Amino acid sequence: MSPIALRRCVGVIAAFALTQQVDAQLPLNTTTANFHMPGTQPGGLTTSIAGSNSCGGCHGQTAPIFNDWTGSLMSQAARDPLFYACLDIAEADAPGSGDICIRCHVPKAWLEGRSTPTNGSAITASDRDAINCAFCHRTVDPFNTLGDAPDVDAGILMALGANAPTQMLDRGMPATPGNNGNGNYVVDPLDQRRGPWPLPPDDMTPAVWPEADCLLYHDPAPTYESPFHRRSDICGTCHDVSLPHFKYNMAGTALLFNGTGVAHPTGNKYDMTPVERTYSEWLRSDFAAGLGVNMNGRFGGPGATYVSTCQDCHMPYDNVLACQFNAGPRPDMPRHFLNGASTWQLDAIAQRWGPSGLNEINANKVTQLAANKARNIDMLGRAADLEAALDDSQSPGIKKLRLRVTNQTGHKLPSGYPEGRRMWLTVEFFACDDYVNPMTVYGGYNLATADLDLGTTKVYEMEGGLDNDLAAALGRPAGPAFRFVLTNKVFKDNRIPPRGFNNTKFTAIQAAPVAYSYADGQYWDDTYFDIPAYAVGARATLYYQATSKEYIEFLRDNNPNPGNPNNNGQIAYNLWVSNGKSAPVPMATVGSPSLFNTDLKGDTDGNRQVTVNDIPNFVGVLVGAIVDPKIVCAADTNYNLIANGDDIQAFVNKLINP
């Protein structure tokens, strides 16, 4: 081979190698330092987090606290199959990122140094107690803005030094406080627990002070009243989530990688990529102002009208025992339901970790998981209203079916972790010859295959992904992607805002609508559907789905250990299949049991108008030349179930006054 030919060959090989390098999907060059955030750090506890079973003796049996909590996804956050499947991909996409996942899902492991390695392999059975009693009741108000925290907290915060959380300010002009987030919790290093209610005097016993918070008697360690535990602020600790390895450019128009091993420069959740803004959505809603919102008993405990805090809906008060040794119940006992929107995951946890699986949770906990799922489904049924109307505002003279979804929650609908979570509308239209089988379906869902007809309906969801610059740097496609740890841009967010929505305020918390619009004050959304020819009735349903087929297949197909049949993506997928494929939950329905009327008498040609063009078919029915039941039904203009000469006058009236 000549030198020239050799050089050409080498050049071709080099070019091919460069192409392959660009086409390769590279991980982001991160380390655990990229995910360092303030709060109590690993190794910062003097006393380890106690297991929940040590609480069940007093707060279980006749007192419902322990059982309520046991069935919640918070209690099982470290057994959630989606958590581990997502963790595997996050670690492969951005090494060290598992630290932020473990921090919230498995706080005992994180605080006690078992978040390293960040792939979760050091997590123990006791760690899987997840967000348990001792953890929550040892948390400290990081800011004490109202000056009502226990006196001991000041010293705990001071001891954190540079790791003490700082007040997070939104992106408004002027900026407004947004409190904590990202799992930047502060935990009492000693086993000194805090509860929401005043404590009895030291010389009182439960028999004398029956409504006393039983925390006083858990052990000789001090126990404190903590108003922080009565406020939504405690929930905001983990229910506002951002990616700290991204920061805004100088113009504030794009989110850029901080650089390898570089912690976020401000530590402010609003200067990072937004993943979840559930707490901030509530904070900028009407629910967070004054008494809150009068929901007329839709949410809250017995007799409640106004609801304000997260606890009002997710931990409603009830007249029950706080501790089985109390002489009687207290009327303001927060039920530890912690209900949300999880469905099939609770069944999957019971299957995998219960007596028939790995046997890490007992039969009682499996029963509580089922009870929690039922409460979640009930709560989803109260989260939205659905109304139908015939409306020609979009097409004058031709009425469409307008469906209005009203958000009855204190945050976006749906809210929370965005990947795989969605709502949509399914509309079934019926002809007069068959009220069982719809003639046309928009937004149809196949329960057997878990496929949704996306092209004919509206799906409420948030879609994040990679912008052009990040995608080019990593050799990945730009646009929406199920890779939350690489998300530096929101491409779609049409989720319905809560009461009190304001575009300026929601822009400040990085929660403005994207590729969609809502007017200030709007907490509902309208969708218009064409009514098929000869449709006489409709049934419409708003559905919620916790995990879409597209997302679970992504977790299965992109696990970094594809050759291992027991990788976490495959495990999650198998559990999803064996537990109903995340069957959608009907949140609201119109047109059941009686169909919503879409009949248009006199429209014999099926164009959704009554004009002279309908005369030939009308006459054809009267003389018996047309027997199609749909057309015959349209010709029955006087609603007597027979098309004959008696319908002529009503038909003429329709022509004159359509």
Fold and architecture overview:
The protein has 658 residues and is an alpha+beta fold. It folds into three domains: 32-75 and 131-340, no CATH class; 380-597, no CATH class; 612-656, no CATH class. It contains 20 helices and 26 strands. The strands form ten sheets. Strands 15, 16, 19, 24, 25 and 26 form a six-stranded antiparallel beta sheet that branches. It has a three-stranded antiparallel beta sheet with strand order 13-14-23. A three-stranded antiparallel beta sheet has the order 21-20-22. It is elongated, with a radius of gyration of 29 Å. Residues 1-23 and 203-213 have low confidence and may be disordered.
Keywords:
6-stranded antiparallel β-sheet; alpha+beta; 26 strands; 3-stranded antiparallel β-sheet; 27% helix; single chain; 20 helices; disordered N terminus; 658 residues; 3 domains
In a nutshell, what does this entry contain?
The chain has 658 residues and is of the alpha+beta class. Helix content is 27%, strand content 17%.
